[in-house]
Amino acid sequence: MRIKCPLCGDRDSREFTPMGHETYMNRPDDEGWSPAWDNYLHLRDNPAGITREMWYHGAGCTSWLRVERDTVTHDILRVELAVDVKRGNA
Amino acid sequence: MVKLLAKSPVEGLVPLEINGLTLTESGPGPITSVAPYAGQEAAASGALKALIGAEMPSPNRSTGREGARVVWTGAGQAMVIGADVDPSLAQHAALTDQSDAWITFKLQGQGVEDVLARLTPLDLNPGVFKTGHAARSQLGHMNAVFLKVAADAFESMIFRSMARTAVHEFEIAMKAVAARAALS
Ligand SMILES: [Zn+2]
Fold first, then answer.
1. Contact at CB, B138 and A7, closer than 8 angstroms
2. Domains observed in chain A
3. Which of A49, A70, B109, B166 has the least C-beta neighbours within 10 A?
4. pLDDT single digits (tens) B54-87
5. Does B59 reach chain A within 8 Å, measured CB to CB?
6. Do B145 and B136 meet the contact criterion of CB atoms below 8 Å apart?
7. Mutate to test the interface with A, among B33, B136, B143 (most CBs of A within 10 A)
8. Could you tell me which residues come within 8 angstroms of residue B60 by beta carbon, excluding any fewer than 6 positions away?
9. CATH, domain range B16-28+101-183
10. Where are the domain boundaries for CATH 3.30.70 in chain B?
């Protein structure tokens, strides 16, 4: 599997670490416990098909990436810098 | 007064010459990481250009030349190698002296890519990775910065604490490529 990092280019998957679903990009605002926190920390779908995940390019540019990929075919469909997604530049 | 002697972490291990390829330690001089503050990228690049004659490089590239080089080393970060960085640049960027954190190797000779291909997943094909190109990737299981300094030579920066492991990795790969060449 190869991932095309927006900064580094096409790279081998051994340079990356997956963190999990893109839910991690949307931390709840409230300080106390709530169903939103339960969802943020624990509740995940396990789709056979297209999903969006956070990947860390630790052996490259050290950027966090949002990767859209197909869990059935292992196709990588889209890769963006998480910082761009957060700032609305993606 | 005790006099401290600088000692290489790979003393006695390099230079290494195997089948026409040579592995040496480069003494690149001071290394300073430059990480421009948000919105200060252009100002930092301009100030650096005025100070050492080389601007901030774009991803996977380097600027300047030996003795005053700037090598891209990651998102929002480059290393100035070989020249001191005037503290005035700190207006625009976070500066960190990293001179003693790294060891720099130079691997040179015909077929240098064949050796490195056993150690890193980077595509170092001469048509893709050209002189002056730089990349962060892995050498074995160690994080590394690669810089192509000539048509047949690459520099690899490795964390200094892993210097001896790096020599071991280079030596195994150099011997394996030599052994394969001997068969054909
Ligand atoms: Zn990257």
1. no
2. 2-27+46-87 (3.30.2270.10)
3. A49
4. 999 999 999 999 999 999 999 999 999 999 999 9
5. yes
6. yes
7. B136
8. A7, A8, A9, B72, B133, B134, B135
9. 3.30.1360.120
10. 31-97
Closest alpha carbon to B118 in B161, B62, B183, B178: B178
- Give the ipTM: 0.89
**Each residue's pLDDT tens digit, B120-140:** 999 999 999 999 999 999 999
**B31-97, CATH topology level:** Alpha-Beta Plaits (3.30.70)
Give long-range contacts, CB 8 A cutoff, 24+ apart: B121-128: B121/A11, B121/A12, B121/A14, B121/A15, B122/A11, B122/B146, B123/A10, B124/B148, B124/B154, B126/B151
**pTM greater than the 0.90 cutoff:** yes
Only one residue has tokens 């094909």, namely B125
Residue B173's SS3 state is helix
Q: Which of B60, B74, B75 sits opposite A9 (nearest CB)?
A: B60
State whether B136 and A61 contact (CB < 8 Å).
yes
**Positive or negative CA dihedral for A78, A83, A84, A87?**
positive
Contacts of A5 (CB under 8 A, 6+ apart): A11, A57, A60, A61, A63, A65, A79
Instruction: Name residues 91-130 of chain B within 8 A of A (Cβ).
Output: 121-123
The span from the CA of A37 to the CA of B7, in Å, is 53
β-pair partners for A69? A51, A76
Tell me whether B75 touches chain A (CB under 8 Å).
yes
